[in-house]
Each structure stands twice: as C-alpha cells, then as structure tokens.
Design goal:
The protein is an all-alpha fold. The protein is built from four helices and no strands.
Length: 73
C-alpha cells in the first residue's frame, strides 16, 4: 500500500501539480493501472496500455459535460 501512495504522490507533484476533485477517481484509476503493471518490462506495459484503448473514446465534450452542467446551475 505504501508503494502505491508513493507512486500517486510522485504523480501529483511531478506530473499533474493539481488534481481536481471532480476527476480524482480518474487519477486514482490511472495510478492503480500503473501500479499493477510496474513489474512488467516497458514494451509489455505499452502493449497493455494500447489494448486498453480498444473500443474506448473520451472526447473533450464528454469530459467537461458534468463540470459545465454544475457551473450553469
């Protein structure tokens, strides 16, 4: 568990610098995935990431839809 939190904190300070509460689950999911493949070699990690993209699409409008509806109310 400690190694997961260390990875998440490094991501926070080193990559994102800020994680919005609305998308916190998405950040956590990303780092869970990173943690689960940490022992694999780089090529295998990248193959698994590419496999995860199949059949999924997140457009900008889908991403901000909830935020816009909250801001307008």
């Amino acid at each position: 568990m400690e190694s997961f939190w260390a990875l998440l904190k490094r991501g926070y300070y080193g990559i994102y610098h800020k994680m919005s509460p609305e998308h916190l689950q998405r950040y956590a999911d990303e780092f869970v995935g990173r943690h689960n493949v940490r022992r694999l070699d780089t090529v295998t990690q990248m193959e698994k990431v590419a496999e995860g993209f199949v059949g999924k699409r997140l457009t900008y409008n889908m991403l901000i839809r909830k935020v816009d509806s909250i801001a307008r109310t």
